[in-house]
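Internal ticket - ligand job 298, NAP:
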Amino acid sequence: MGQGQITAADGGTWKLGDLVVTRIGFGAMRLPQTGRALVADAVPRDRDAAISVLRRAIELGVNHIDTAAFYFSPLRSANELINSALAPYPDDLVIVTKVGPGRDPSGEWGRAARPDQLRGQVEENLRQLGRDHLDVVNLRVMPSMTSIAEHVGALAELRQAGLIRHLGVSGVTPERLAEAQAIAPVVCVQNRYGIGAGAQEHAFVDACGEQGIAFVPYFTIAGAGGGAGVTGTENADVLAVARARGATAAQIRLAWALQRGPQVLVIPGTGDLGHLAANVAAAALRLTGDEMIRLTSV
Ligand SMILES: NC(=O)c1ccc[n+]([C@@H]2O[C@H](COP(=O)([O-])OP(=O)(O)OC[C@H]3O[C@@H](n4cnc5c(N)ncnc54)[C@H](OP(=O)(O)O)[C@@H]3O)[C@@H](O)[C@H]2O)c1
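stdout (structure tokens):
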């Protein structure tokens, strides 16, 4: 790493339970394929390219990787790529995975896991990552789930058994978070969030911070593009601030999220080494109060 290189450490750290993570993390969902993720006919990404991105993320100081066993394309699995690229794992690396959604081996979506199926999903992650415990497991709450109490209870038992260190929840309302917290400690909420979010979503981010819970947004760069990724059309205010700061729109989106509060941990996903470096460099970007107000009211 060259002298003066911006690293993830420039964005500061946060503790997920007892695990210290860089606030700039990395999302692995984009790695198994190019183009749209999570579709059965996804186009597998070049294996060496994906492995290079993971290794470079670690070189740039990132120690927080978000993944899931259901992140796969016909020929690539995010967990297997992480294992191949990074094992034996650095001592400080925190791998966060998620369970809940049902995806069969051919990539078709099925029913969300029942509580008694969560152990199998946790074990699938353990096998693929080559670990004997998972650092953090998020329960990805699906719209079909009317209550999450039994699911959280099942994960809490796996935590007691030593298979999981800490629990999080994803795709939740404040009410669902409270339901989970009544059963077990929750260290993070992973929800869709970024510039353009509404008042309730901003309030939820603040409420998580007040409770000492990490808020981990996804689609922070992709925004309205969601699963399809960056669309090519960008908001005029984001572009104006980017131009003024000599940064890219993606960097402004990440810097804005990081400045929403110390509890916000970003996990941008990319299969591109240049984008990875740019995303880590956003750690050093500090927006002014006026820029924050302008971007928050987009
Ligand atoms: N809990 C959940 O339900 C859930 C849902 C979705 C995602 N996630 C997690 O959140 C992570 C982030 O979500 P995401 O990857 O979908 O969205 P994202 O990080 O907001 O954006 C990724 C998209 O932006 C592009 N991109 C990344 N860096 C860029 C840069 N510097 N300049 C221009 N374009 C850039 C990527 O394409 P390139 O490859 O070309 O860079 C990709 O199209 C995922 O990887 C996954 O781990 C969780």
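Auto-summary: The longest strand covers residues 134-140. DSSP finds ten helices and 13 strands in the chain.
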